[in-house]
Specification:
The protein is of the alpha+beta class. It is built from six helices and eleven strands.
């Protein structure tokens, strides 16, 4: 299964370190981030899970739930959490999905349907494609997909930046330019006519007719 931006995030039932969930029900009316790991007790993932625990308040402030996934059982996740806390200074304070039968990894296209066996018979290298970040909106549609190699730790500050852009552009008829940061100038959506833009934004500057730049709308950071 190949997922694309705009697709409905597949629903599933799973055990997590905080009990059983049905994914769509767990998301509710929130935004959500699902980030996956090829195996427990792997070094790069240990740093990522610890960092996410430290910055969870930033996701909370944006109304975003975070949930991890690793191709092992929840009992292994709970043992791993002790290592994460001791080495990173923070234990996971969000649920981590157990995926010992590879069901969710396959459902989200991170492992091929032909992948056989369970977690016990597979190494991190076997699961190296299970290194995705999915940002999912309250409508349960996928808004962002990032895929990282095992050797490179993920930039979760960038995920927060993208969420700021997604939430802003869902509320206003704008897009954000390259390297945009909250509070920076934005671009009027190409689907907005000049007449409608005057009603919505007043004046703007336009280096080209198709590039209409305005201050970030009020009400967002």
């Amino acid at each position: 299964m190949s997922l694309k931006i705009g697709d409905t995030a597949p629903d599933f039932e799973a055990e997590t370190t905080e009990g059983p969930i049905r994914f769509h029900e767990w998301i509710g009316d929130s935004w959500a981030v699902l980030f996956s790991h090829p195996k427990d007790f792997t070094p790069v993932c240990t740093t990522e899970l610890g960092y996410m625990a430290k910055i969870k308040p930033e996701f909370d402030r944006r109304g975003v739930k975070i949930i991890g996934l690793s191709v092992d059982a929840t009992a292994d996740h709970e043992r791993w959490a002790h290592d994460i806390e001791e080495t990173q200074g923070a234990a996971p304070n969000y649920p981590i999905i157990g995926d010992p039968d590879l069901h969710v990894a396959k459902l989200y296209g991170m492992l091929g349907a032909e992948s056989s066996g369970g977690a016990d018979g597979r190494t991190a290298a076997d699961n190296q494609t299970v290194r995705n970040v999915f940002v999912i909106g309250p409508d349960k549609k996928i808004k962002l997909i990032l895929v990282y190699p095992m050797s490179t730790g993920r930039n979760f500050d960038e995920v927060l930046r993208v969420i700021d852009s997604l939430q802003l552009t869902a509320q206003y008829k704008v897009s954000t330019p390259a390297n945009w940061e909250p509070g920076g100038e934005v671009i009027i959506s190409g689907a907005v006519s000049d007449e409608e833009a005057k009603q919505l934004f007043g004046e703007w500057r336009a280096p080209r007719p198709y590039l209409r730049i305005v201050p970030q709308p009020a009400g967002r950071r």
